[in-house]
Specification:
The protein has 155 residues and is of the alpha+beta class. The protein is built from five helices and three strands; from the N terminus they run αββααααβ. A three-stranded antiparallel beta sheet has the order 1-2-3. Strand 1 and strand 2 form a beta hairpin. 19% of the residues are buried.
């Protein structure tokens, strides 16, 4: 039987108490900085307040060539952006021509082989979303939360 000294027990007890206190402080800080404690939860993608989604269709749909060595192919992509505050939607509307240009640049020049796979389409969607966010961020305006392909046809 091993006897524990009173000093070792105090160190273990003190370490446990410090760990519990630090955990409580960490949880409290997390709740505070996410806005949970004051009722104003924030999304960190653009700093937009959590609210109902607002959608904006970018029309008309983009029609571009899809590179294929065997034959001429075309891609038609309908794009919708989503934000949780009207200011971000207004920023896209105010800069719609620059946004369309940047999205068209990303979509153009894609190969047919890449676009018939869901991985390629998802990569393209992410690249298009990043292009729109960059376009709006460069103008120091509120950014969108997401970009969706609402229709994607390749033939």
């Amino acid at each position: 039987m091993v006897k524990k000294s009173a000093g070792n027990v105090k160190i273990v007890l003190l370490s446990t108490i410090v760990g519990v206190v630090l955990s409580i402080v960490g949880v409290g800080a997390g709740l505070y900085f996410t806005g949970f404690l004051n009722g104003k939860m924030h999304l960190f993608s653009g700093g937009n307040q959590l609210g109902p989604p607002i959608y904006l269709d970018i029309t008309p749909a983009f029609v571009v060539n899809a590179t294929d060595s065997a034959q001429e192919r075309f891609m038609q992509v309908a794009v919708t952006v989503m934000a949780r505050n009207q200011a971000a939607i207004d920023a896209v509307n105010a800069n719609i021509f620059a946004v369309k240009n940047d999205v068209r640049e990303v979509i153009s020049g894609q190969t047919y082989a890449e676009m018939i796979r869901s991985v390629g389409i998802e990569r393209l969607r992410g690249d298009a979303e990043a292009a729109v966010k960059k376009c709006i961020t460069e103008r120091h305006l509120p950014v969108i939360d997401a970009l969706y392909f609402t229709s994607f046809v390749i033939q």
